[in-house]
Automatic annotation (TrEMBL):
Annotated InterPro entries: Cro/C1-type_HTH (IPR001387), Lambda_DNA-bd_dom_sf (IPR010982), MLTR_LBD (IPR041413)
Pfam families, per database record: HTH_31, MLTR_LBD
Signal peptide: none
Origin superkingdom: Bacteria
Taxonomic source organism: Rhizobium lusitanum
GO molecular function: DNA binding
Domain HTH cro/C1-type as annotated: residue spans: 22-94
Record's protein name: Helix-turn-helix domain-containing protein
Length: 291
């Protein structure tokens, strides 16, 4: 048995009651037969019994009963997560449960979407944006999708880059062609590092973020220097300058879009800042016969 939970919740009585109500209602919807729980005699209550939830979560029935009754008790993230798993809460429901208990949300499993292709619909949107360069990336700067205009703009055949290496910060550290396409590479690296640090503050002790940071550190001493400045920034629509194959500089405005509040995928579309830039971009794409 887990023993006495070790963190005191600070939720108000109303929040405690809502938490208890959430647990009770879910408990009453679960089918004992589906969960392999045999019942002898007449079943008087719907769903699982409190003692069955407590036993499967490996906690005391008295403690669970008080929790479901909305009484202020001691509760730890580990124990609450165990209850959430027994009651088959999904990620969003579990996070809400933790908010009601005034506890930090549990870490989600490492996101495996980095190596997963985009949906056909998302890729179609990127392709239709041509001649405007566009990509979809995560908060950790992993590139999940891109159009041909973006691939040509950065001067790197991203199709040939392993999915785990398609990362804007990592490529700026190890890929000469990528770095050459940036008119202000040092400034852009510092900006990305500041954005990464700000986002990482929301994922403290997350192994995936720690591994990503260590990879940046190992790839370049320059990143270590930039990281030690301890700068933080929020996402803004900024003007970014790219160096084209002929050496000319093309200034493009970044435009950021999110698919949904719960999804950290961000679509960035680069648009010209003036008419001359628009003509230059169109000419470049037309010359390379990609749009």
């Amino acid at each position: 048995m887990h023993g006495t939970p070790d963190i005191v919740t600070n939720h108000s009585p109303s929040r405690a009651q809502e938490l208890g109500e959430m647990l009770r209602r879910r408990r009453e919807t679960l089918d004992p037969k589906r969960l392999g729980l045999g019942r002898a005699g007449r079943v008087r209550t719907p769903g699982l019994r409190r003692e069955e939830v407590a036993a499967r979560a490996d906690i005391g029935i008295t403690w669970y009963t008080k929790l479901e009754q909305g009484r202020p008790i001691r509760v730890s993230p580990r124990v609450l997560l165990s209850v959430a798993q027994v009651l088959e809460f999904n990620e969003v429901e579990t996070e809400h449960l933790f908010k009601l208990a005034s506890l930090p949300a549990p870490l989600r499993p490492e996101n495996s979407r980095v190596c997963e292709p985009l949906t056909a619909a998302s890729q179609q949107i990127l392709d239709q944006l041509c001649p405007y360069p566009a990509l979809i990336q995560t908060k950790r700067y992993n590139i999940r999708g891109f159009n041909e205009a973006y691939r040509r703009l950065v001067g790197v055949d991203l199709h040939a880059v392993p999915p785990e290496d398609r990362n804007c910060i990592y490529l700026s550290l190890v890929n000469p062609a990528w770095r050459a396409s940036q008119a202000d590479p040092d400034e852009m690296l510092a900006n990305m590092a500041a954005l990464f640090r700000a986002s990482m503050a929301e994922h403290l002790d997350d192994p995936a973020w720690e591994r990503q940071l260590e990879r940046y550190m190992s790839a370049s001493d320059q990143f270590r220097i930039v990281w030690d400045r301890y700068q933080l920034k929020g996402i803004e629509n900024i003007v970014k300058r790219f160096r084209l194959a002929d050496g000319t500089i093309l200034a493009l405005q970044s435009n950021n879009w999110w698919a949904s509040p719960s999804n950290d995928d961000r679509m960035i579309v680069y648009t010209p800042t003036d008419e001359a830039g628009a003509e230059r971009l169109k000419a470049m794409m037309k010359r390379q016969r990609i749009c």
